[in-house]
Amino acid sequence: MGWWLNLADRPIQAVQLLEGDPVQIAVWLSDKRVHFYAAQTGALYESRDITVPATMDLREQSWQTFLERLNAPNRAFIPLFNTNELQIHTSYDGRLRLYARNNSQLILDLNQRHIALKLHGAAELIALGMDRDFGSLAALTDDGYLHIFQQQVYVGAFGIENEWADELPFKVLLPDSAGVIVLVGETRIQVWDMAGQVLHRYQAPAPLGTATCSPDGERIITGDRDQAMIRVYDAPLTPLRQHSASDLLAQTTPIQLLSASPPADASLGALAVLNDDTLVFALHGALCQTSLNALNELPQPRSLL
Predict the structure, then answer these.
(1) Which of 10, 106, 120, 297 is most deeply buried (CB count within 10 A of its CB)?
(2) 38, 45 contact by CB (below 8 A)
(3) C-alpha 221: how far from its chain's center?
(4) pLDDT per residue over 162-214, tens digit each?
């Protein structure tokens, strides 16, 4: 049935599902404070402040100590640490990290071997994604180019202007070992291959504000910017399910006594999903755990006999 918690009087910044024993949820109330909850019960494991070292010297002990704090209590590596100045993407085994500094500098940490990744041109990064299994990378820059890497090997830069003439995607997602890149913008979703070719396109029925995908890439989840509607698609972008986030939350069990429900106009925030269909989402300052199976199914076209 699921559960929900009211955690703050302001929007939750990010949520992450961390597989391990047990599965945990990392909830970021700010870019430097994270809380870890049990995914099954909602029990709080730990609250942690994370401070970035004053200098980004990857060889310093202070930096190694900082990285150790990016491990969850269940020993899983936090997939993304994100501030205004710094992003850190980490593989499942922790042997590969991608650093993005000041929306321009990219450094790949491959078994503590630090490799500067060069982007063609002088544009700024606006979105970045990493396959946590294979280490494939995709970086979108504000001049409309999608830069693709296979770890440190630069595949190329692919212009997306013909597909995204009036907007640029705000999200780049790379499922594990799937060999695809999911681009999500305000009005559309696209799936690209690692050679820069568009495989699937979908025009969103309402402006989008958030998105995620399952680790295996079999499910792509979006959240409407204005209506707080959660929508589920398969890998070729066929719509499968949808449900109001506030209605989903109302169907779950509040863990706290006398919890006030989010306001009726609460905005839908971050989303996270696992391959087993476990879904967590933030509705303003509330955290909800449920299942994709709780969303209403959409009718599917059937072939004529």
Answers:
(1) 106
(2) yes
(3) 10
(4) 888 788 999 999 999 999 999 999 999 999 999 999 999 999 999 999 999 99
> Over 70: is that where the pLDDT of 305 sits?
no
What would you report as the CA-atom Rg of the chain, rounded to the nearest whole angstrom? 19
Q: What's the rounded Cα separation, in Å, for the pair 107 and 104?
A: 10
Phi-psi region of 60 (alpha: psi -120 to 50; beta: other; left: phi over 0): beta
State which H helix or E strand residue 246 sits in.
helix 245-250
For residue range 124-173, what is the model confidence (pLDDT) as tens digits?
A: 899 999 999 999 999 999 999 999 999 999 999 999 988 887 889 999 99
The one-letter amino acid code at 262 reads: P
Token code pair at residue 56: 């980004």
Rounded Cα distance between 135 and 26, Å, is 22
Three-state secondary structure call for residue 66: helix
- What gap in Å lies between CA 73 and CA 71, rounded to an integer? 7
Tokens of 106: 């990219």
Contacts of residue 113, Cβ cutoff 8 Å, sequence gap at least 6 = none
Question: Is 233 a residue whose pLDDT tops 80?
Answer: yes
Residue 145, SS3 per DSSP? strand
| Each residue's pLDDT tens digit, 1-54 | 799 999 998 999 999 999 999 999 999 999 999 999 999 999 999 999 999 998
CATH topology of domain 3-296: Neuraminidase (2.120.10)
Q: DSSP letter string over 44-101?
A: EEEEEE----SS--TTSHHHHHHHHTTB-TTSPBPSEEE-SSEEEEE-TTSSEEEEEE
Strand order in the sheet with 296-297: 208-213, 219-224, 229-234, 239-244, 296-297
User: Cβ distance 206 to 246 under 8 Å?
Assistant: no
Q: Which secondary structure element, helix H or strand E, spans residue 67, and what is its range?
A: helix 61-68
Distance of alpha carbon 127 from alpha carbon 65, whole angstroms:
27
